[in-house]
Amino acid sequence: xxxxxxxxxxxxxxxxxxxxxxxxxxxxxxxxxxxxxxxxxxxxxxxxxxxxxxxxxxxxxxxxxxxxxxxxxxxxxxxxxxxxxxxxxxxxxxxxxxxxxxxxxxxxxxxxxxxxxxxxxxxxxxxxxxxxxxxxxxxxxxxxxxxxxxxxxxxxxxxxxxxxxxxxxxxxxxxxxxxxxxxxxxxxxxxxxxxxxxxxxxxxxxxxxxxxxxxxxxxxxxxxxxxxxxxxxxxxxxxxxxxxxxxxxxxxxxxxxxxxxxxxxxxxxxxxxxxxxxxxxxxxx
Length: 285
Description:
Layout: H1 7-25, H2 29-36, H3 40-47, H4 55-64, H5 70-83, H6 98-106, E1 109-114, H7 125-135, H8 141-154, H9 156-159, E2 166-172, H10 173-177, H11 183-196, E3 202-207, E4 221-225, E5 234-237, E6 244-246, H12 249-265, H13 269-284
Parallel strand pairs: 1-2, 2-3
Antiparallel strand pairs: 1-4, 4-5, 5-6
């Protein structure tokens, strides 16, 4: 697959364009589904980019929307073809959060809040393996190894020479205090966290316990923003059996405001490094 083709992002763009054509036609998703003898949920999934779309689907939808410009139809058909190609993550088999990986791979910036663990992009290999093993106790070692490899591969965005991912992470103190693996592994993880925070495009802040209640008490989330203005920002909330993707402007705005409050209440960058270093020394005793 060409390096500049991200199937997940292509599906999103294609879905947005199909939604725009439907709305221009003044039709509801239910009306389109009735015309094509398919379920309304299929039309919704095609428009939100959560499933692959075939060139036949595009042709049928363009017919319903009476798109007469062949250049538009050909362009949409090509997008459908590109969206069915495989990203690097498909080489690892069935990855539960493959949609998120596709978005993260193409994102320009990522804001993450995690109250429990160090985010995947900043994890050491040892921490990642211990975390996955503990979180998924019935998972076979081969699947754990695969998940660790995917996590390490994702981290290449941080170290890219050109256009590295801009990462802003806010952690709760609990993520630093929770012993994942063993104390020595935690020392290595916390030292790695401080090291990564020295990168100009990586910011790490911690909210200490003494801060009390704060806007992040409801749980983990991430906000992804993209280099192309045509791609709307996404709020990602990870679930046990399914994940939630919020793309409506109002939802993204609410989470963005909440994140600004988190950043304001957290220790600043230098205070955070000192705080993490102190906890690492506590583990060494």
